[in-house]
Amino acid sequence: MRALRRFTVRATLPAPLQPLAQLVTNLRWSWHPETRDLFEALDPELWRTCGGDPVKVLGEVSAERLATLAKDRRFLRRLQDVVDDLQEYMTADLWYQSLGADAPQSIAYFSAEFGITEVLPQYSGGLGILAGDHLKAASDLGVPLIGVGLLYRAGYFEQGLSADGWQLEHYPSLDPHGLPVKLLRDKDGAAVVISVPLPEARTLHAHVWRAQVGRVSLLLLDSDIEENAPAERLVTDRLYGGDEDHRLRQEMLLGIGGVRALRAYCSQTGRPQPEVFHANEGHAGFQGVERIRELTVSHGLTFPEALQAVRGGTVFTTHTPVPAGIDRFPKALIERYFAGFGVPLDQLLALGAEEDPTKFNMAHMGLRLGQRANGVSELHGQVSRHMFRDLWPGFDEDDVPITSITNGVHAATWTARELVELGTQRSSQGDPAEVEGPVHFDGVDAIAAGELWNTRRLLRGRLVDEVRRRLRETALSRGAVESEVGWTDSAFDPDVLTIGFARRVPSYKRLTLMLKDPERLKALLLDPERPIQLVIAGKSHPADDGGKQLIQRMVQFADDPEIRHRIAFLPGYDIGMARYLYWGCDVWLNNPLRPLEACGTSGMKAALNGGLNLSIRDGWWDEWFDGQNGWAIPTADGVADPDRRDEVEARAIYDLISTQVQPRFYERDRDGVPARWVEMVRHTLRETGPKVLASRMVRDYVQQLYVPASYSARAMADGGGYAPAREEAARRMHLLANWGTVRVAHVEATGAGDTPEIGSTLALRAEVELPGLSPSDIEVQAAYGRVDDADALHGVTTIPMDHEQADGSRHWFTATVPLERTGAFGYTVRVLPRSAHLANPAELGVVTSA
Ligand SMILES: *Cc1c(COP(=O)(O)O)cnc(C)c1O
C-alpha cells in the first residue's frame, strides 16, 4: 500500500536542547562549519546517513540520545557557544551599518528560484544559486535585504538515468513542515493568506513560508493550500514546469503576491517597507505593476505618475544573452489575465511591448520598470546593450543605459574548509568586503608548496571517493547487479589529473564538445604516463529532448569498459554534489559558445578552491583570465559553420590539455610536488579568489544601484506626497510629445584655422529649433573624439553647451572644444532631454543629433 501523505514525527527536544530548534531554522548552518559540527555531534552516524541535513537529523535522532545529550555538560557548553555566535552574527554592526542611516533601510530581492542548500531544493541552476549567494553575502555584510520567491512543492526534478543513458525525472514531494521554514502568521496565530485575482472572478491564494538565511528573511509563497480550488493549488507545483498559462500564474504570484507578502510581513514584524525593489531576471516583473496599482489606489496617481515613482526604486538584472531565452507571453494572455486587475491595460501592455506586436516581453518590461539595470559580467553588459539597443533608439550601443556588475560566489558556502583553515582567504589588507580597490589573498604566500599540494590531493581523494560511491549507486539504479559493480571500487585515482565539467545542459554550453574527436579524448584519458580523468554532471530541462540526447551520448561514451574508470557522467547534479567537484577538480572546463554564457559561476567556485580554469573567454573568464590562473581556449568566433567552429574549438581544447595542462601537472620536483602547477594554484587563490566573491558583488550592487535607487525613490515620493512623480510624469509626457519638433538647424566652428594644431581650441556655435519646448527642457552637448574613415566617432567626450541667445523658438548654444590629440578629429552636436530625475541621459530614449 502507498501512503497518501508522509510526515516526520519528531522527538520533543528536552529543555536544555531547545536552542537547537532555533539553530536549525537559521540556514546559516549551511555555511557555518561550527554549527554543522554541532549537528554532527548529535549523532555522527545519523549525520552521515542523512547526508549532512540537520533537519533530518533532528527529525530522526532518538529520544534516548537527546536525553543523554541534555545532561552532557560539554555538549551543552558547545551548544551555548554556537547559539551565542549566531546571536552575535545576527546583531553586530557590519559593513552596511557603516554606510549610515541614509542608506536604504529595507531592500526587496525577487527571484523565481533560490539555491541556498540542497535541503531546500528550490533552484534549477546558476540563476538560483546566484540568488542564494546574494542573500548569504547580503547577510554577511549586514545588508537589510528581504528575499521573495515561490515554494515549489516538487522543487526542480531529481535526475536519474535509464539503462541506455536517457535522463529520468523524478519529482520529490516536499512537505514544508519538514523543511527549515516557518509559516507567516498574523497576531492571532492564523496563517497569513495572500490573494491575487485571476480571470473569470477566480482568486489565487497563497501562504507565506519564511526561511531565515542568516540575517536575511526569505519569503516563499505556496499555493498548495485548502483555500484554493484544485487548479490553483497546482500553481506552485514545480519550478519551470507547465505551459504558458501556468508560468504566467506563477509569475503573477511571484510579482503581485510577492509584493503583498512583503507588505504583510513588514507590518507583522514592524520592519520598514522596502525602498528598493530588485528583480533578478524578468520573471518577477509584475512586482512593479503591483506597486503601480498600489499608488494609483493609495495616492490617486495616474499610471504614468505611479510609473515614475516606481521606476526610481527599481533595479533590474538581466541574465540572458540568448534572445530565445527571454521570457515572453502572448499579448492576448496578458490581456485576459489583467483585464480586471486595476491598471489601464494599454499602459500595462506598453511596458512589455517588443518587435513582435503579439508578444509581451518580460525583459522589456523589466527595463522599462527599472530606472537602473545591469548585466552580470562586463562582456554580458556589452551584449545586453546590443541586444536591447532598440529600446533606446538614436543612441550608440555604448550609451544604452545597462551597466554591469559581475557575479560572485559565496566563499563560505563553496570553499573547502581545509583551504580556509590553511589561510587561503586571508588578506593583510583586511576583510575584502571592507577594502576599497583590489584585494589580494596574500595569506596564501605563507603556505608551503608541499602543504598546498597535499591539501589539493586530499580534496581530490575525497572527490574520488564520492565518484566511486555515486558510480556504484548509479550502476545499480540502471539495472546492474552487485557482482557487476565491483569495478567502481577502483574507478578513478586520487593522483590523476582531474578535470570537471558540470552545468545545466542547454545547447550553448556544449556538453559534448569534448566528444568531437572521441579517439583523441580516449588517448588523453588512457595516456600511460600522464592520464586525465573527467567528472561530468548536469541536468537537461525536462522538455528539452535535444539536451537529453547530449547526456545520453555522454553516458554511452563513458559506459565503455575501456575508459569507464577515467570518465564518469554522474546524475543528480545539485549543490551537494557540486561542492565535491569544486573542491576536488584540478581543472574546471567550460566551453560555451561565446558570448552566450552571461557570466558563469561554477568556474569561480573552482578558483576559490585552487582549481585552474580551462575555458572559452566568455562571461567572467573574459574579464579575469590573467594568463596565470588557467588557460583560455581560443574561440573561432568568426567561423560561421557551427560544426566547423566546434571542430576548431574542440581541437584547441585537446591541444591545450596535451601541451600545457598535462605536462605542468605531471612535472614534479624532488619532493614530488608539481612546483609550477602549485604556483598557478597559489596565484589563482591569491588574485582571482578575492575578485569572485559574492560580498564584492553585493557591495557593488549596494553602492552602484541600491543606494542611488533609494535616493531616486525618495526624491519621487518626497515624503509621501509624490508631487515630484506627478511633475516628472507631466514633464516627460510634454517632452516626448514635442520631441519630434527639436532640430539642430546649423553648427558652425571657428577659431582653429585651416590647419588646427594641438593645444588650440574650437569654438562651436549651434542653432537649435525648439518650437514646442524651452531651453530648460533640454541639454545641448558638443560630442567629439577620434573619427574613423566612415566618420564614426570613437572615445567620445561630451561637454554641455551654454545657452547664448534666443529669437522666438530659435536658440543658440556655444561651447569651446579643446584639441588635445593629434590625428583625425570629429565633432557633432546633440540635443538630449534634461531632468534632475534622470539616472542616465539616454533614459528617455530620445536624442536629436546635428
Ligand atoms: C554554480 C552552480 C551552477 C551554475 O554554474 P554555471 O557555471 O553558471 O553554469 C549550477 N548548478 C550548481 C549546482 C552550481 O553549484
From TrEMBL:
It is an enzyme of class 2 (transferase). One of its GO terms (biological process) is carbohydrate metabolic process. Pfam families: DUF3417, Phosphorylase. GO terms for molecular function: glycogen phosphorylase activity; pyridoxal phosphate binding. The keyword Zinc does not apply. Its cofactor is pyridoxal 5'-phosphate. SUPFAM superfamilies: UDP-Glycosyltransferase/glycogen phosphorylase. Keywords: Allosteric enzyme, Carbohydrate metabolism, Glycosyltransferase, Pyridoxal phosphate, Transferase. Its EC number is 2.4.1.1. The keyword Glycosyltransferase applies. It catalyses: [(1->4)-alpha-D-glucosyl](n) + phosphate = [(1->4)-alpha-D-glucosyl](n-1) + alpha-D-glucose 1-phosphate. PROSITE patterns: PHOSPHORYLASE. Residues 13-120 form the DUF3417 domain. Phosphorylase is an important allosteric enzyme in carbohydrate metabolism. Enzymes from different sources differ in their regulatory mechanisms and in their natural substrates. However, all known phosphorylases share catalytic and structural properties. Belongs to the glycogen phosphorylase family. This is glycogen phosphorylase. It comes from Petropleomorpha daqingensis.
